[in-house]
Amino acid sequence: MIFREVENMLDLEQSAGYRRIFNKGIEKGIEKGIEKGMEKGRRETLRENVLRLLYRKFKKLPAPYVEKIRTLDEYALGMILDNIFEINSLSELEEYL
What we know:
Residues 39-97 form the DUF4351 domain. This protein is mostly helical. The protein has helices at 2-9, 16-58, 63-71, 74-82, 90-94. It has one domain (12-94). Helix content is 76%, strand content 0%.
C-alpha cells in the first residue's frame, strides 16, 4: 500500500516538467524527421533530373548505368549535372559513376 502511494506521488507522466520535456522531445523528433524528409526529397529530385537529362542527351541508357546512378550520393549527382554538357559519350559518363 505504501508503494502504491509512492507510485502515485511519483507519477512522472502527470507532472508538468515531464510533459514539457516529453513535448520538447516530440518537437525535436518532428523537426529531425522533416529535415531528413527534405534531404531525401532533394536527393531524389537531383537523381531524377540527372536521369532525365541523360536520357534526353543519349536517348537510351543501359540499365546498369541507371542502377548505378540511383545509388550515387548528392555530390556525384551534382558533378554529373555540372558537367552534363562536357559528357559526350557513355564512356565519359563512366568517369562519374
